[in-house]
Amino acid sequence: MRQTRIMTERARHLRREPTDAERKLWQALRTHRLAGLSFRRQAPCGPFIADFFCAEARLVVEVDGATHSSDEEVTHDRRRDAWFAAKGYRVLRVTNEDVYRHLDGVYETILAWAEGGK
Fold it and tell me: Which of 87, 96, 106, 95 is nearest to 48 (CA)?
């Protein structure tokens, strides 16, 4: 997927300043720790930046905080999910709360989705 310099810089900024939930989830996903899958974090994908991106499983994992409940953000999330779906990717959304309170369940869900389940 082609990316612009602006998107690359934005992704770098997001990698330097992750949310606490993103930082916590990244510890499990980095360096093939989850079933050998290769995830990239804050990966530019077309007009969007995916929180976590696994090309081999065609999976995007988004960690959503409180800001994702506004009408504007919900509309934006639907648009981006549709874009990823059109490219053949599935988008799994987890909440910050799930990462903080149910991390093992989040790992299991990501793994199930990566293996083709839902």
Answer: 87
DSSP the chain: ----HHHHHHHHHHHHS--HHHHHHHHHHGGGTTTT---EEEEEETTEEEEEEETTTTEEEEEE-GGGGSHHHHHHHHHHHHHHHHTT-EEEEEEHHHHHH-HHHHHHHHHHHHTT--
| Distance in angstroms (rounded) separating the CA atoms of residues 99 and 4 | 31
Contact 100, 64 (CB under 8 A): no
| CA neighbor of 44 nearest in space, from 90, 8, 84 | 8
The verdict on pTM exceeding 0.85 is yes
- For the chain, domains (ranges, CATH) are 5-18+36-114 (3.40.960.10)
**Using 50, 70 and 90 to split pLDDT, how confident is the model at 10?**
confident
- The pLDDT value recorded for residue 20 is 94
Tokens of 4: 């612009």
Token pair 């869900």 is found at 109
